[in-house]
Amino acid sequence: MPSRAxxxxxxxxxxxxxxxxxxxxxxxxxASIKAVDDHAHPMLxxxxxxxxxxxxxxxxxxxxxxxxxxxxxxxxxxDWIAAQRAVKERGAKNPAEALDxxxxxxxxxxxxxxxxxxxxxxxxWVPFADALMLPLDGRLESARTPDTRSLYALETKLLxxxxxxLGVAKLPASLDDYVKTVxxxxxxxxxKGGAVxxxxxxxxxxxxxxDDPDPNxxxxxxxxxxxxxxxxxxxxxxxxxYLFRVIAREAGRLGLSVHIHSTDVAGSFYSARGADPxxxxxxxxxxxxxxxxxxxxxxxxxxTTHTLSLFAKGxxxxxxxxxxxxxxxxxxxxxxRVWLYEYPDRVLFGTDAFDxxxxxxxxxxxWLAANSARHALGLALTGMLRDxxxxxxxxxxxxxxxxxxxxxxxxxxxxxxxxRDVEVIVP
Length: 427
Ligand SMILES: [Zn+2]
Known about the structure:
Layout: H1 2-18, H2 24-32, E1 35-40, H3 78-90, H4 95-102, E2 104-110, E3 123-126, H5 130-133, H6 139-142, H7 146-166, H8 175-192, E4 197-200, H9 215-225, H10 233-253, E5 257-261, H11 281-284, E6 294-297, H12 304-310, E7 316-319, H13 323-326, H14 329-342, E8 347-348, H15 362-386, H16 392-410
Parallel strand pairs: 1-2, 2-3, 4-5, 5-6, 6-7, 7-8
Helix pairs in contact: 2-15, 3-15, 4-15, 7-8, 8-10, 9-10, 14-15, 15-16
The protein binds zinc ion.
Zinc ion binds next to loops.
């Protein structure tokens, strides 16, 4: 019966046409959620003529030799040009207005220090911890690649700043004294200064395989080189591995989460293999670190199935910062779908908004990454909805968890009064 066949074909194609990639009601709902951005580098609001803001990262990428970036991170990508234009037209008068434009309520600000325009409750501080892990002469380490050459010197400078802030003039002679007089007081100072987490950028410097060395060996290495001299690479790794665990343990005791950069960029000599989140398993299986909450920043992109396997540890979370800027939305949606189905309470929204020069403002980055992440989340939840895996109500609940609820819970921001004056309740 040809006429019925024709009707059937027309019916099918009508359904296909009317099915938008993201369910429209869900899309509107996701757009309305005021987000908590797990990771970004907002810039200070400085008066004209002021010294430029150099504290947006402990290891700024412009310290590295020229590198190849994924296409969508380049300033000449059409999406960046559109984002720059959209943000410019809107003309935010201050950093908080830039957050409003991107639909972000709270931005965790990964910076060496905070300052004008970046104040709680909209901007919460995430300082850097790597310098505390690197008290000795890193000459042999830094000679490894053209990238690491400039980076170790920046860490040494930051450690001196931390010590200066504490009034400690030189490294104590013993490792235990170093921990007692520099490591713990710095973390306490950061906590007192409003920090909610500390960040490791270690993957720019070394592999993420933080082993569990004999503490006496670590003490020996430290005391031998604290006053001068250059430790061998294996010796220094022993000390770093020990200190990583001490820092993570102390951070947990103080209620600071530990953020760890894990993705395959950036730098021409960057070790993608060394940044594999699976390398963290030894540290994450340390039973003395279970009071510490770890967040895999950038989700380990593109090795997101390795991240998935780490969620089973119970104290591991991951955000999609940067991944939302690099990846095609449907690719990120596939990751979100697997993560959300298996560990819905561990997944965090994030942008990694950064300042990339005059054609890449952090405000445009926030807008671009937030829109991309919302779109990917919409695709993931729509797919689950249409496959009958979740209900519409559950889709909205998952959207809320990713965009704000999981972060509020993780950082203790959901408690009454913890984020005064910020509208974090969804409509
Ligand atoms: Zn970042």
